[in-house]
Design brief:
The chain is α+β, with helices and mostly antiparallel strands and 559 residues long. The chain has six domains: 31 residues; 70 residues, Roll (SH3 type barrels); 67 residues, SH3 type barrels; 76 residues, Roll (SH3 type barrels), CATH 2.30.30; 67 residues, Roll (SH3 type barrels); 148 residues, endopeptidase fold (from Nostoc punctiforme). The protein is 26% helix and 34% strand. It has ten helices and 39 strands. The strands form eleven sheets. A six-stranded antiparallel beta sheet has the order 34-39-35-36-37-38. It has a five-stranded antiparallel beta sheet with strand order 6-5-4-1-7, covered by helices on one side. A hairpin with a 6-residue loop joins strand 37 and strand 38. The radius of gyration is 41 Å and the shape is elongated. The N terminus is likely disordered. Keywords: Hydrolase, Membrane, Protease, Thiol protease, Transmembrane, Transmembrane helix.
């Protein structure tokens, strides 16, 4: 028993020593428990001070001091944001309520605004999807008379939301926009008066703001001067259809041929370099570089890239102003061959096919169809395969035919003679005749192209003052002693019919009208090209030989 008491005493003594030395586990447990109680008390005090509760979903957790600080910061920032949002919502509401009878355009692209309530009426503007309008009259079935963007016209009611649905949609579409206050405002590539002009904005047009800096506003298409805009909350509205300005968007560094007839494009910047293309008067191109001496521009125009004399090219603002004056509404074909019909419907006969080798002047537009000029007549093509826009003429590939004799062996065989005999005698009579024929064809082709750009005149025969298609071929051939009648149908019977694989420079190619009657003739100049007096719009021009379907090819030279 005494021994047991002694052991108990020793054990108690050891625990006392451990507590004194800080090694007793129970000691630390008690201290830790007190610390937890203190922390919990502090959390409760903070929570109560913030107006919080500890009930609810059962997912509540104890927040640390750092979390409490973050919460306090967020709450401090939320209140001003709420006030700003309330102010913005009020401005949006005011914009929506400013329309008496609101309409919102519901299309993925844009909706045409027309001059009158008819699909054949002239298009005067367009409303992008989400644009707003004031509906002035809804009494005409299928149409709304509207006011939008300073324009008044008619739009199809099928694609317009109205009533409460329009107001709800409009509220989400209102944003801070730059509204143009001057007649025309340049959109520049950089925020500087010296920067390149990309296009022009017109009065009352609205643009979403990307950013603002001193004196300039950045929009999606470039920069505009802040002096000529009103920055305010607004809905997008109609834009006036001014397609001419779209011409400027096609070129970064526009050059326009400033010649009366045509300008040669050469493979090198030298006067005697090979000609690879021609630009008719007022044709456009992209200037790629300038030679060190400044005498030549390397230019890309249509399919041709080469060099032109800089003295015959307009650049800078002069080129832009000229482009806006001479641009024409054209149909640019987006497929290799496109059916052209007699009437604007798929039931109408296909009387020819056109190619994507050139641009066709637009005579009129209907829903789904475009009427284009084809020499002295017209045809209809589906809009699905053409891009209708204002554009400039561009260069066409062309290399003059070399005026060299044909190979001797070919000449001898064509006459049934001996090549060796001709060679031993220094050339037979048949060889001379063949060489003369080859050279004559080259001379005819090169002579014809001298008159590019000259005017078309119905019934005319002057290569300089004006001629029609048959007058052109008649006058060119007359220069080389070949007589032809002044009528395309009669010229088609004046020689020997050949296939396209047999045609050579100097042959004539004929085309028909929608009734199948020959009504146009062109002169083949080699390289898959023809030269012809096309129409009053284009004058004498170069085209691919099958720019529309040929009906007949004739050799009128008799060789």
């Amino acid at each position: 028993m005494e021994e047991q008491k002694t052991e108990d005493y020793k054990e108690r003594l050891q625990k006392v020593r451990q507590r004194r030395n800080g090694k007793d586990p129970m000691h630390w447990f008690m201290i830790g428990g007190c610390a937890v109680i203190v922390v919990l008390a502090l959390v409760i005090i903070v929570k109560l001070a913030q107006g919080g509760t500890f009930g609810g979903s059962g997912n509540a957790r104890v927040a640390s001091a750092s979390e409490a600080e973050v919460q306090e910061t967020v709450i401090g920032e939320t209140l001003p944001e709420d006030e700003e949002q309330a102010k913005e919502d009020e401005e949006k509401k005011n914009v929506v309520e400013s329309y008496q009878n609101l309409g919102i355009v519901d299309v993925s692209g844009y909706l045409n605004m027309r001059e009158s309530a008819s699909t054949t009426s002239d298009v005067i503007g367009k409303l992008m999807g989400g644009s707003a309008c004031e509906i002035l009259d809804d009494s005409q079935e299928g149409w709304y008379q509207i006011s939008s963007g300073g324009l008044e016209g008619y739009i199809s009611s099928e694609f317009v939301q109205t009533g409460e649905a329009a107001k709800t949609e409009a509220f989400e579409l209102v944003k801070k926009m730059a509204v143009i206050t001057t007649d025309k405002l340049n959109i520049r590539s950089e925020p500087s008066e010296d920067a390149q002009v990309l296009e022009q904005a017109l009065k009352n047009e609205r643009y979403s703001i990307v950013s603002e800096q001193e004196g300039w506003i950045q929009i999606s298409g470039g920069y505009i001067s802040a002096d000529y805009v009103d920055v305010r909350y607004a809905l997008n509205e109609a834009r006036k259809l001014d397609l001419r300005t779209m011409v400027l968007n096609m070129y970064d560094n526009l050059g326009i041929s400033n010649v009366n007839n045509y300008l040669n494009i050469r493979v090198e910047p030298k006067e005697d370099a090979k000609i690879i293309g021609k630009m008719t008067s007022k044709s456009g191109g992209e200037i790629l570089e300038t030679t060190e001496d400044g005498g030549w521009y390397k230019i890309k125009s249509g399919p041709v890239t080469g060099y032109v004399k800089s003295e015959f090219i307009l650049t800078g603002d002069a080129a832009k102003q000229e482009a806006l004056q001479v641009a024409q509404l054209m149909a640019i074909v987006s497929t290799d061959r496109l059916n052209a019909r007699t009437e604007p419907n798929t039931d109408a006969p296909i009387w020819t096919q056109i190619s994507n080798s050139e641009r066709y002047s637009v005579m009129s537009q209907q829903d789904g169809w475009v009427q284009i000029a084809l020499d002295e007549t017209s045809a209809y093509v589906a809009t699905e395969f053409v891009d209708v826009r204002y554009a400039l003429n561009e260069a066409i590939e062309f290399t003059p035919v070399e005026e060299t004799p044909e190979p001797e062996t070919k000449a001898a065989s064509s006459k049934g003679g001996s090549g060796s005999k001709s060679s031993s005698n220094g050339g037979s009579g048949s060889q001379k005749a063949s060489s003369s024929g080859s050279s004559k064809r080259a001379q005819i082709a090169n002579y014809a192209t001298q008159f590019l750009g000259n005017p078309y005149v119905w019934g005319g025969t002057s290569l300089t003052n004006g001629t029609d298609c048959s007058g052109f071929t008649m006058s060119v051939m007359a220069h080389f002693g070949v007589g032809l009648p002044h009528h395309s149908g009669s010229q088609a019977g004046a020689g020997r019919s050949i296939s396209s694989s047999q045609m050579r420079p100097g042959d004539l190619i004929f085309y028909t009208n929608s009734g199948g009657t020959i009504n146009h003739v062109a002169l083949y100049i080699g390289g898959g090209r023809v030269c012809h007096a096309s129409n009053a719009r284009d004058g004498i021009k170069i085209s691919t030989w099958n720019y529309r379907t040929p009906a007949k090819i004739v050799n009128v030279l008799g060789d």
